[in-house]
Amino acid sequence: MADSVAAILVAAGRGERAGHSTEGPKQYRTVGGRAVLAHALALFQSHPRIETIVLVIHADDRALCERALGPEAARVHLVTGGAERQLSVRRGLEFLRASGRPPGIVLIHDAVRPFVDHATIDRVIAAAIAHGGAVPAVAIADTIKRATSDLSVAETVPRSGLYGAQTPQGFHFEAIVGAHDAAAGSGRSDFTDDASIAEWAGTRVVLVEGAAGNVKLTTREDIAAADERLKEKLPVIDVRTGNGYDVHRLVPGDHVTLCGVRIAHDQALDGHSDADVGLHALTDALLATCGAGDIGDHFPPSDPQWRGAASHVFVEKAVEIVAAKGGRIMNADISLICEAPKIAPHREAMRQAIATMTGLTLDRVSVKATTNETIGFVGRREGIAAIATASVVYGEVK
Ligand code: MG
Known about the structure:
Keywords: Isoprene biosynthesis, Lyase, Metal-binding, Multifunctional enzyme, Nucleotidyltransferase, Transferase. This protein has helices at 36-45, 62-69, 85-98, 118-131, 173-185, 194-200, 220-230, 277-288, 295-298, 312-324, 347-358, 376-379, and strands at 5-11, 30-31, 34-35, 50-57, 77-80, 105-110, 133-139, 144-147, 153-157, 163-165, 169-172, 205-209, 236-252, 255-258, 261-264, 267-270, 328-337, 365-370, 383-397. By secondary structure, the protein is an alpha/beta fold. Strand 8 (144-147) and strand 9 (153-157) form a beta hairpin.
């Protein structure tokens, strides 16, 4: 098919400038959690136009390659390269020619460019179809100097019209095969990219817009920078924790209400509402997660409408305020501090009540109790205290 597209990824180099590594040549170095060439390969494998991928590797690297790619190695054609890049490309082209289904267009890419993007690949394919050869390129931004061997500047080269050539470079398959054959036939092996071979052979090559980020990893520093760039960015979750504390005085009476549960007792909690210290502490904890003040701000004791109020209304209002701010309550934990009554027999009813008023599942609701070892105002049965903690997620921080 005239417009069928194959890709050759060239990964046979030794990469000496990147320094020695136990992981092998730089195309096998791990950046962002996987091998450099695995990143590059994934971008070609996920491109909808590319039907066939040939990966040209060094004869010594087959085990390295299979380890780096895992099961993906079975989805590409592994071809052994030659001593120079030009020969490695030629081996890949010969593989495609011999495959019985040579493509219309071939893209040739350096596997040490892991940041290639689909838009660049699209531009190269379109221009290669239209013109015969296409190279992604970026205008040179630096002023260019030509220097002598002792680094004396010999001249400043006008940079207008100068571009840096990237890969993938795309060609009519027959044209680039013919160019490589001709170059080999005339003993030329000094070309630094495939476009220069095509140009030498008379194929028209046009430039298309490259991408500044489509860098070639050459040095140790390039690999470190690529690792930073490709590291998986874990989302930062906006989890907030609020706490609340409350105390009410015990007076003579016949019951207390704690965490929404009425418990017969020989004392009562004194307060404007039902004086449920557990739910008051929880209300404050919830309000605290979005800076919404405290229970006194929303339900002033001076307001007669809260006289004798059941305290679940305070929790429910705090739940509403949290929801309006985009919060999702994750858990609620309340500690009751009292000498009496005994909390344990009522604990499950308390958890159920809190689950109902907060919308939490039971496993996210905790009620605990402790005495104050008979010391202090709690120990003297003058009052009951409660501490509450709530966690609320307010979405993702970008
Ligand atoms: Mg209170």
